Amino acid sequence: MKVIYSLLAFSMLSVSAKANTELPDRQAELPAAKKNSQAEYLVPRDLTTITNDEFGEKVKLGYSLFVNSQQMRGKYVGNNQNCVNCHMEAGRKANSAPLWAAYMAYPAYRKKNDRVNSYADRIQGCFTYSMNGKPPAYDSPELVALSAYAYWLAMGGLMDQHGLENEPVPALDDKQLQIGGKAESFPMPDVIAQALPADKRGSLAGRGYPKIANPELEPSLERGMQVYADNCAACHMKDGQGVSDSDGHSYIPPLWGKNAYNWGAGMHRINTAAYFIYENMPLGKSVQLTVQEAWDVSAYVNSQERPQDPRYRGSLEENRKKYHAHDGFYGKSVNGYTLGSNAFPSAVVK
Ligand code: HEC
Ligand code: HEC
């Protein structure tokens, strides 16, 4: 059977390469939904089915950069993180912000910067904040490859769901790859386009980190420290620095300090980290903490100093007001110390 495409004219979105003087908010909070125990998650294809052609090489490179991001250390990555640390199982795991669900959710309009964010824009955000680095350019081989990998995960899984399991994932050109699967004009097999119209693509089951109930008690750093000692320190270490080799490749990521995600990253929000932790930590034993413990330990981890928010322009107070109207400790005082006031350098890459 031959795959039939929707041959809608492909209109380029204005993927503007805005200068980084005013960093847009690309780490904006995702709409978090409660976990649905009945949900059926998309299952991406096995890596062995990647084709051995030019397009397949891009997908393989994307996978490799995603699981070992230290290949980009000093160029685009400024800390000991790998993308896979927060998007687990190589970006395949439902409820750990999987790439397949993300890919189908862009381009997305963001009110905050009044502009359409493509999939590549969103990846750039994770480089700036989560990786404490400098984002690769739109047309760089790295950004193309990371987009190709996410597209491949999403499209292969969708094709399998719609009776196209014997077809290879169709190649896309570099420009199309970077926009994301939510574009009206996105080329996809007809049966998928009909089953999944553009307005439904952004809410595939398992996207993001599932929302948990609000804590009964105000999150407490004291209790959080105890939860950390009992459940986390064995791996992430008492000092939060995890375990890395001398090249900076982390086996267990640091949670604070100079090699962790910075003060602009989504994970520094107490709610976002609580959702992630409740669902995914301690590693291999997910959903073991109580809801209260997840909030407490998230607050504890996020009350520790880390690299500066790259949007900081000299005034902590101004930066806090402008970008930190959410659940986090940046610019706030804890035991007499104001977080962010002695932050590590941001974007220490060449
Ligand atoms: C320190 C943790 C962390 C690391 C490391 C990280 N991310 Fe993220 N990423 C996040 C968080 C948090 C979000 C937003 C989730 C939310 O708000 O619920 C996110 C969102 C995303 C999204 C959008 C998800 C969606 O459904 O819209 C993509 C795509 C993404 N990251 C790609 C990457 C890539 C590529 C890398 C490596 C270059 C990376 N991330 C590294 C934490 C991280
Ligand atoms: C058995 C070892 C282990 C334990 C115990 C553990 N973690 Fe993790 N944690 C990991 C590993 C490994 C990763 C990276 C996951 C990956 O790459 O697949 C990780 C990732 C994370 C991340 C992602 C953020 C980042 O900066 O990369 C956070 C936050 C986190 N853990 C918090 C916790 C908390 C809080 C606890 C205790 C409740 C905990 N972990 C317990 C091993 C562990």
TrEMBL record:
Keywords: Heme, Iron, Metal-binding, Signal. PROSITE patterns: CYTC. Coiled coil: none annotated. Residues 1-19 form the signal peptide. The keyword Amino-acid biosynthesis does not apply. The keyword Electron transport does not apply. SUPFAM superfamilies: Cytochrome c. Residues 57-154, 219-305 form the Cytochrome c domain. This is C-type cytochrome. It comes from Vibrio plantisponsor.
